[in-house]
Amino acid sequence: MIPKILLVNPPIYDFAAYDFWLKPYGLLSIAGYLRGKAEFTLFDYLDRLSSTLRLRPEGHPFVSNQKQFRSDQWGRGRFYCEKVPNPACLKAIPRYFRRFGLPRKIFKDFLKQQRTFDFVLIQTTMTYWYQGVAEVIEDVHDALPQAKIVLGGNYVMLCNNHAQKLGADFLVQGTNPGPLWEYLGITPDLSQPALWEVYEKLNVGVLRLTDGCPFNCTYCSVPKIYGKFRARPLQCSLAELELLAKRNVENIAFYDDALLFEPEKVLMPFLNEVIERRMKVNFHSPNGLHARFVTKELAELMVRAGFKTFYLGFESASSTWQRRTGSKVFCDELAQAVEYLTSAGAEQQNITAYQILGHPHGDIQELEESMRFVNGLGIRGMLADFSPLPSTLDGEFCRKWVDMDEPLFHNKTAFPIILMGFNESNRLKDLQRKLNRSLTK
Ligand code: B12
Ligand code: SF4
Question: Which of 42, 51, 162, 256 gives 20 to 30 Å between its CA and that of 23?
Answer without folding.
Answer: 162
